[in-house]
From TrEMBL:
Database matches in PANTHER family: EXPORTED PROTEIN (PTHR35788:SF1), EXPORTED PROTEIN-RELATED (PTHR35788)
Protein name: Membrane protein
Entry superkingdom: Bacteria
Keyword check for Transmembrane: yes
TM segment ranges: 46-65, 72-92, 98-116, 125-145
Key words, A-Z: Membrane, Transmembrane, Transmembrane helix
InterPro entries for this protein: Glycopeptide_resist_protein, Thioredoxin-like_sf, Vancomycin_resist_VanW, VKOR_sf
Keyword match Transmembrane: yes
One Pfam family from the record: VanW
Length: 453
């Protein structure tokens, strides 16, 4: 029975590969599709090759006795697929979210096949072999016919304009407007606007961010670009175009904080760029580029979230004090190696400074007890900051436990503070300048630690 299930699982993988091919004719991840070497094999999408392989594997598992040749084929396929995933990661720094799952399932099925006892296929196996053969025929037919999508480099009108441009004129460049220029100049990139006008982007003015509308790894780069002020954002260029990408790009920009932002179309990125997202800029007389959202964020100086924490904050006096303390530490800058002191920044918790009566845990002759106290509740803010520091991997210099459990943090994760004695302090060991960002609304208190690049 298990022997049959291995073959049936291969049939399901074949069907899944065909489904993925119908949704996206090549690998839907920037780890594969954006890399020319991995986009296809012999001009055929990997999904179709996978569908054929899995269907053949299903036929062999369902229709034959266990044998070394079939086992070797299954093992080789699993190793090859793992190699593709590994190569994609080595080139782009990303792992295809779909491919690794296919590779993992294929490896498990190969292991199961080798571990199963020899057994003659039953009636179910022979019946299932028919659909397996049909899938193999379908996959093979699609590979021969190769009905891939028609690449949409640019609309027809602009394609004609591109072919017509053979000479250029000098003149000042204005972003987003057609301009004749030297097409071979390294600091000028020929693109097309969304309304089909040819133009050139001057990389000496600002860099260009190349992304693909179908690339899931590009979304992080777009969100990072949205964090920049409009005048500091790079040109946004949609590349590796497919049918409908011009409209899809507009939707992707809107979904990631760049609604209404101008964007351009380019059939391919500049020479040397192997994947997206990619940032291209001029450095002296040379064209430079980096690939991957992390490298792009580093180059653009986009802050990186190192750690964050969110805890409940009730709408009582304690919640108001926690929100006030959060506002006082919001925006504080911590240099590399500097020790941050919660008490030093928040200061005395007094009525004159806006604090109200909350509840604090104090030691009494009867043991720890929650009593009314002006400023009570700021420990929530100190605790949220402590949790964010832990996630960021920073060094805690001073922290105190509450003398009784609290309902907003686990044992050992809370941070009790009391002016001017008990403090919460941590050292910035990130090697980067840090900024504290806080927000208190909808019954939640959130603290974030950002590394400024």
């Amino acid at each position: 029975m298990i022997f049959v299930q291995v073959g049936l699982f291969y049939l399901l993988l074949s069907l899944a590969a065909l489904a993925f091919w119908l949704l996206e004719p090549s690998c839907a991840s920037g780890a594969c599709s954006a890399v020319a070497q991995l986009d296809s094999f012999l001009g055929r999408p990997w999904w179709l090759w996978g569908a054929l392989y899995y269907s053949v594997a299903g036929i062999l598992c369902l229709g034959l006795l266990k044998n070394r040749l079939t086992g070797t084929l299954l093992a080789a396929g699993a190793v090859f697929h793992a190699g593709l995933v590994g190569y994609g990661y080595a080139v782009t720094g990303h792992v295809c979210p779909a491919c690794w799952k296919f590779a993992a399932i294929g490896a498990l099925l190969a292991v199961f096949y080798w571990g199963l006892p020899d057994k003659k296929p039953g009636h179910t196996a022979y019946v299932s072999a028919g659909p397996a053969r049909a899938l193999a025929v379908i996959a093979l037919t699609l590979l021969v016919v190769n009905p891939g999508t028609k690449p949409v480099a640019v609309p027809p009108a602009t394609a004609a304009a591109m072919a017509a441009v053979t000479e250029s004129q000098s003149g000042s460049f204005k972003t987003g407007e057609p301009k004749a220029t030297n097409e071979t100049a390294p600091d000028q990139i020929r693109v097309f606007t969304s309304d089909e006008r040819e133009t050139y982007l001057d990389l000496r003015e600002k860099p260009a961010l190349f992304f693909a509308a179908w690339c899931p790894h590009c979304l992080e780069a777009l969100r990072d670009a949205a964090r920049l002020s409009p005048e500091k954002r790079p040109y946004l260029v949609v590349t590796y175009l497919r049918e409908g990408d011009a409209e899809k790009a507009r939707e992707k920009l809107a979904e990631n904080g760049l609604a209404g932002e101008s964007y351009y179309l380019a059939e391919n990125p500049p020479e040397g760029v192997q994947g997206v997202p990619a940032l291209v800029w001029m450095e002296g007389s040379e064209l430079r580029h980096v690939e991957g959202a992390g490298a792009i964020a580093e180059k653009l100086g986009i802050p990186k979230l190192l750690g964050y924490a969110e805890i409940p904050s009730p709408p009582d006096g304690g919640g108001k004090n926690a929100a006030l303390a959060a506002a006082l530490i919001n925006g504080k800058i911590i240099q590399p190696g500097e020790v941050f002191s919660f008490n030093r920044v928040v200061g005395p918790r007094t009525v004159s400074r806006g604090f109200v009566e909350g509840r604090s845990i104090v030691e009494t002759v009867y043991g720890p007890k929650a009593v009314p106290d002006v400023g009570g509740g700021v420990c929530r803010t100190a605790t949220a900051l402590h949790l964010a520091v832990l996630k960021a991997g920073l060094q805690v210099v001073e922290r105190h436990d509450h003398s009784m459990p609290v309902n907003y943090a686990g044992l050992g994760n809370d941070a009790a503070v009391a002016w001017p004695y008990w403090d919460f302090r941590f050292r910035n060991t990130s090697g980067k300048t840090l900024a504290i960002k806080t927000r208190s609304d909808h019954g939640k208190l959130r603290v974030e630690l950002w590394a400024l690049r």
